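Morning!

As promised:
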Amino acid sequence: MPATIRDVARASGVHISTVSRTFSAPHLVNPETRSRVLATAESLGYRPNRAARALITGRTHNVGLIVADIANPFFPPLIKAAESQARQRDYHVFVADTNEDATAEEELVLAMAKQVDGVLLCSPRMSNSLIEQCSREVPLVVINRLVTGLPSVVMDVGQGARDAIEHLAGLGHRQIALLGGPRGSWTSREIRRAALLAARAAGADLTVLGPNPPTEDGGAAAADQVRRVGCTAVLAYNDLMAIGLLEGLDSLGIRVPEEISVVGIDDISLSRRTRPKLTTVATPTAAAGRAAIDMLLQHDNTAPSRTGRAAPTAVDGRRTTAQVTLQTELVIRDSTGPGPHLPAGPTYAATAASGPVASYVKE
Amino acid sequence: MPATIRDVARASGVHISTVSRTFSAPHLVNPETRSRVLATAESLGYRPNRAARALITGRTHNVGLIVADIANPFFPPLIKAAESQARQRDYHVFVADTNEDATAEEELVLAMAKQVDGVLLCSPRMSNSLIEQCSREVPLVVINRLVTGLPSVVMDVGQGARDAIEHLAGLGHRQIALLGGPRGSWTSREIRRAALLAARAAGADLTVLGPNPPTEDGGAAAADQVRRVGCTAVLAYNDLMAIGLLEGLDSLGIRVPEEISVVGIDDISLSRRTRPKLTTVATPTAAAGRAAIDMLLQHDNTAPSRTGRAAPTAVDGRRTTAQVTLQTELVIRDSTGPGPHLPAGPTYAATAASGPVASYVKE
DNA sequence: ATTGGTGCTGCAAAGGTTTGCAGGAGAAGT
DNA sequence: ACTTCTCCTGCAAACCTTTGCAGCACCAAT
């Protein structure tokens, strides 16, 4: 029922190859013929069959994007950015959700492998060796994790954690807790590593709590634990947990930031709307989405391969395995305040930034 | 490089059709042969090429899902439900985001048409005739809109709006404002229709404000307008706007629910965490996602078509155009309270429900 | 011995598109 | 008049899989 290239050819009195070229290599066909073909194609409602095209070119013009949890507000900006960047290059994005389940990740990659030209693997929880194995089935770009030999884009959460700890130490906090993220998270390990180092350098104690589910409930559930460790400041794995913690502390009757300071990571839009507004480390998620798409599609000029069967289902053969690190930025709002060891003098007073403009403060 | 059915056939000494059947019709091949084929396939790392399969069967085993805005927390539960329902039937979901842009919708449907077996069109903003036109390119199920002749699943927001208005009227409110949704939204029109009727029946005045963008900012921006119309209660198009309104009113120094009562629609998870907790109309979004997938795939037993070229790219030829309406439920929390016309006596006192359990109150 | 089944496998066409190669027409250069 | 070149178009193979049909071997029943 749907019109094919053959119908268009018949109706406009040319060979099918001419029709094909009209769409995929317009400069090779006589302008006159071309417009005639285009007209009949239009009138027949012809649309190229991507499956057939994929079969012979080996390019589907789709890319997969696998995230842990669509409902986590961290991801939508990244997804949107990736989508729009892909759309500019005439690619489509196939979003899938693993529900924070490590085993679902491999399944999903494998299932997608043959119907996409590459996969963006976001915050994977599976092992490095498994990721590497997946990368043999389909070109992969990893986001939020560094895997040697694979192209990846990460945020510099290490720097972010350092900034956060220094900010807290500068405010006079000496007992700090770190609310760890989910098991298997590279980001979580990275934060932990950097935070421990920064705390030692600043002469503060850092107690690591976790692993925890990276959700509001996870943060709320940790409130009691936070109270028991007797800290005066907390750095959370992400904003969602920080916000949950804010609520948990509130229902325990603990005031923020007067009694306990809280810092999140990510700067999701919600963190501007909590009360108190959340001090957090902004991560450039949209930029990450764009960068990942660019890396995946870097060698794709949509130039026709010499022979159709070269590089099947692969955008690029010998890919450069670049690793991009994006800068983070500490945004100081109202959830952090002076701690018990704040030296006298105005030097160390935090100037709370208001509005969406990021402000960076070093002690 | 990747192994094909032919490689497996050669390596295991059978014809390619036997390999094919091993995967797509196992009961037709000798168990002994089958296991041998499976073994060699495994060792070669063979994975069926979905593009080739799609080409001949006309089934891609993909479905598209088009939403207005992934970042809107209304959608993720729907997306997740659709995904998991689809996965059970061995389908994949292709999520795309229109950024609330009506013209992007058609583009997206058309672009998807050939690479999916059907599309779930969620809260479309385009015209009915355009939708109908799209449905000629690819099987469509419309969510959150009633289009005659097309299968659709909607929430009974009319009943929800009625319940909300009756709730407010029962609390003694006589001046009510309706914060309308975006232009082109069927849901918005439906709410408006039902709310006007219910308000008249209850002897209350209803002022309609809008259209507004269905976001927190949209709600916040309307706060001033709400104040000027002099109402004592507001029903918002969705929770996001209601929450924005809560903030807007707060920064105007107007207390909720003491001075103005606010009701949302959707019951997104965030609405349980605002202060005051939001009274809202719960819409069964997950059920809607599941139902839509079921409708799209209803006649798909994955039974092989007699001839491969039957029903190309279409799950079903003569589809029953069922229209499903899902029930909504008023959830009373803390953002609604007594209005100026509350009669004496305990009869009309609202008993605020707490926790996630929905409670339904008729005046 | 013939017939009729049953259970399995091979054959080959088909699906829609791309693309290297060859060929034709006309123009231009010698 | 011959070659050479440029532009365009047609030819046909190839991509990988599914599936109706036919054929084979074997067994049971007549």
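Chain B has a mean pLDDT of 88.

Hope this helps with the figure draft.
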